[in-house]
Amino acid sequence: MSKPPTTLLAPAERSASRRARKNSGRVTLSDLAALVGVTKVTVSRALNTPELVSVDTLERVQAAVRQTGYTPDLIAGSLASTRSHLIVALIPAMAGSVFQETVGALTTELAAAGYQLLIGQSGYDESREDALLDAVIGRRPAGIVLTGVIHSQSARQKLRACGIPVVETWDLTREPIDMLVGFSHENVGRAAADFLKTRGVRRPAVVTPSDRRAQARTKAFLKAFGNGKTLSSIPVVTVESPANLGDGRRALKGLLDTHADIDAVFCGADILALGVLMEAEYRDISVPEKLRVIGYGDLNFAKDTTPPLSTMRVDGTRIGTLAATMLVDRIENRAGGEPIVDVGFSLIEREST
Questions:
Q1: When you count CB atoms within 10 A of the terminal residue's CB, does the N or C end of the chain come out lower?
Q2: pLDDT tens across 50-64, in order?
Q3: Is residue 148, in this structure, part of any structural domain at all?
Q4: pLDDT for 209-228, tens place per residue?
Q5: Does the keyword Ribonucleoprotein apply (predicted)?
Q6: Is there a single domain that holds both residue 283 and residue 234?
């Protein structure tokens, strides 16, 4: 039979606990020690190394924690031990995002190593990202995971000077701030162009988000498909990041109004490709017979569209797993592997092309 929970505080003591919260804004370690009738050191041991205190003391401290709602001050604890177990990851967006696999892998791998992951949503505005980085660095996490390569010289300087291990992800550069796990967006754009050429495409168009990485894919696609043409001969529709399904539908409508002869669309995000497929179906344009469509991301719906969507896949799970491993190795002073890892990408060919 399980033992009933210890009841520690009498009504008068519970009232005192409520007054402590009201006066200070939070229950402190000192409040717990006073309520239990032991020292702060004893309470700290009960919370962090319970094997070092008696069963009776441990039960009394645990009862006080339950009844007061006490939460440990992790920042103060990390300062005292010079070790934080918090990792901060900054991503542009969460909803319907290609970064979800990476976040999931980071969470799992870091938790297994005894670290917690905190997510910051930076959006696609670099000035906002810089401000968020200032707030993150000031809280001295154990490590930082960034989406993309930081281009702001000020932010790069701050990150290098702060002494916190940093992993940049989802991009590639020869000069990372610290460590990097990513791939070449330019190579993605070139591969998409070369693939559509093999399918007999002659008059492609591009629908792309406005962020830096998507623009890199677009520029590489245009250059690879040029064949001596001016780049302006390939129509491009740019939509605000993060893109949505409606953007894809409106983009194809606009393209067909001005370039009715296009025979393929390279979409810088799968959600845009889904919108293009829906608009094509609405207009009774057969895919891929009259219009070939290829996306980027291989999101979970890509294989279930009508027809199933060809797309460029990046292994987000591997990115997250590698980033977590590299950070933990660095934090715990273990010998790691190469500081730059190119995970590459895959072209997933389905019926839309």
A1: N
A2: 888 899 999 999 888
A3: yes
A4: 999 999 999 999 999 997 54
A5: no
A6: yes
Rounded distance, CA 218 to CA 294, Å?
Answer: 13
Domain count, the chain: 3
Full residue range of the structural domain in which residue 160 is found: 84-183+317-345
The three-point CA angle 189-253-313 to 5° equals 30
Q: Which amino acid is at 336?
A: G
Kindly give the interhelix angle for 55-68 and 29-36, rounded to the nearest 10 degrees: 120
Residue 120 CA to residue 336 CA, distance in Å, equals: 26
Nearest C-alpha neighbor of 25 from the set 65, 75, 62, 73: 73
CATH of the domain at 88: 3.40.50.2300
CA–CA dist 321, 107 (Å, integer): 9
Both tokens assigned to 165: 């291990």
Q: What is the pLDDT of residues 231-290, one digit of tens each?
A: 568 999 999 999 999 999 999 999 999 999 999 999 999 999 999 999 999 999 999 999
Residues 259, 150, single domain; the answer is no
Rg of the chain (C-alpha set) = 27
CA–CA gap between residue 116 and residue 327 (Å, rounded): 12
Amino acid letter, residue 257: D
- In angstroms, rounded to a whole number, what is the distance separating the alpha carbons of residues 291 and 270? 16
Contact 102, 320 (CB under 8 A): yes
Please check whether residue 323 lies inside any domain of the structure: yes
3-state DSSP helix/strand/coil % of the chain, to nearest 5:
50, 15, 35
How far is the first Cα of the chain from the last one, in angstroms, to the nearest whole number? 64
Residues 95 and 176 in one domain: yes
Percent of the chain with pLDDT over 90: 61
